């Protein structure tokens, strides 16, 4: 964990509530985007992200400084999303009628490359209807948020082996759905 994050956590735990905002500010957009990808509803995603931030503030004293604040915050978000899905009976429902947010602009990429990457990313995310809720969470954390296996396991509260198994299954299912929905990506060795 960064020393700046540790200092902010210590300030919040010491009673300086104003130090919480700079602590979570770098993660707000990512939390909202991840929540949206999990539940596929903008309003629900806002509610889940807000709940995750509330829980993070309330239970900040339980954050393991050695594991890292980001992983702990993602774990809270995933749990809040799971709670939301259970409460709403959405465990297996997947809505794909809303546009996906695109925060995938590659630094230094030209406009055409950035557009192609954005289109591919949107199509990959569109194919998430082929996977289970657990596989979706693993895929989003590993391949979209680019967490390593250990970080994803910590965030999801499971073993590294479980992450690898779910990720492998998710990739196979998403690949099959990509071939079904977007066969033109196979052209040219893609």
Describe this structure in words.
The chain has 190 residues and is mostly helical. The chain folds into two domains: 1-91, Rna Polymerase Sigma Factor, Chain: A (Orthogonal Bundle), CATH 1.10.1740.10; 109-190, Arc Repressor Mutant, subunit A (Orthogonal Bundle). The chain is 65% helix and 0% strand. The protein has nine helices and no strands. The chain has helices spanning 3-13, 20-24, 28-39, 42-58, 69-88, 111-126, 133-144, 149-156, 160-181. Helix 3 packs parallel to helix 5, helix 7 packs across helix 9 and helix 8 (149-156) crosses helix 9 (160-181).
Coarse structural class: mainly alpha
Q: Would you report the number of β strands? A: 0
- How many whole angstroms does the radius of gyration measure? 18 Å
The CATH superfamily of the largest domain appears as RNA polymerase sigma factor, region 2, helix turn helix motif
């Amino acid at each position: 964990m960064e020393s700046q994050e540790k200092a902010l956590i210590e300030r919040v735990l010491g009673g300086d509530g104003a130090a919480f905002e700079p602590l979570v500010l770098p993660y707000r957009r990512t939390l909202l985007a991840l929540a949206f990808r999990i539940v596929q509803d903008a309003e629900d995603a806002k509610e889940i992200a807000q709940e995750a931030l509330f829980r993070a503030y309330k239970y900040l004293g339980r954050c393991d400084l050695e594991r890292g604040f980001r992983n702990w915050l993602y774990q809270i978000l995933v749990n809040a999303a799971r709670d939301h899905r259970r409460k709403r009976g959405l465990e297996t429902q997947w809505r794909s009628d809303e546009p996906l947010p695109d925060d995938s602009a590659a630094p230094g990429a030209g406009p055409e490359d950035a557009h192609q990457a954005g289109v591919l990313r949107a199509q990959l995310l569109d194919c998430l209807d082929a996977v289970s809720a657990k596989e979706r969470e693993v895929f989003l954390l590993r391949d979209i948020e680019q967490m390593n296996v250990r970080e994803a396991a910590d965030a999801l509260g499971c073993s590294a082996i479980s992450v690898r198994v779910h990720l492998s299954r998710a990739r196979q299912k998403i690949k099959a759905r990509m071939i079904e929905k977007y066969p033109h990506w196979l052209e040219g060795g893609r």
